[in-house]
Amino acid sequence: MPGSNLFEYAVIRVVPQVEREEFLNVGVILYCPSQKFLQCICAVDEARLCSFSNRTDIEEIKAHLHSFAQICKGSKDGGPIAQLDMPSRFRWLTATRSTVVQTSKVHPGLCEDPAKTLEKLYGEQVL
After folding, report:
1. What is the pLDDT of residues 9-21, one digit of tens each?
2. How many CB atoms are located within 10 Å of the residue 25 CB?
3. Contact, 121 vs 32, CB < 8 A?
4. pLDDT grade, residue 54 (50/70/90)?
5. Which residues contact 5 (CB under 8 A, 6 or more apart)?
6. 91 SS3 class
7. Could you report the per-residue pLDDT of 62-78, keeping only the tens digit for each?
């Protein structure tokens, strides 16, 4: 059946000054249990991000986003969280937090190909 794979996704965003609640979408994380798929795509538009705040540490933000990718992969470079099972990693990455790098609420959907769906969502939500 086309589109029969249930998936969940969240938008990854940067909130340079948490107290102002302004944010820039910088990525998407997608989890599809039936395909054993957990990946994210992230990129920082530095000029747009600096327009929110000139105190933004771009390199620190890139490091946090790199950690997201390593945790998704289950890489040893992702630390202890990356060693958890896939559902736990997704839940940890999408947990509500009040930090500079946050995620939106989790949204469900159906897809045939989670990788293509991730790219489509990234195009719609970030680019």
Report:
1. 999 999 988 888 8
2. 18
3. no
4. confident
5. 32, 34, 35, 110, 111, 112, 114
6. helix
7. 999 999 999 999 999 99
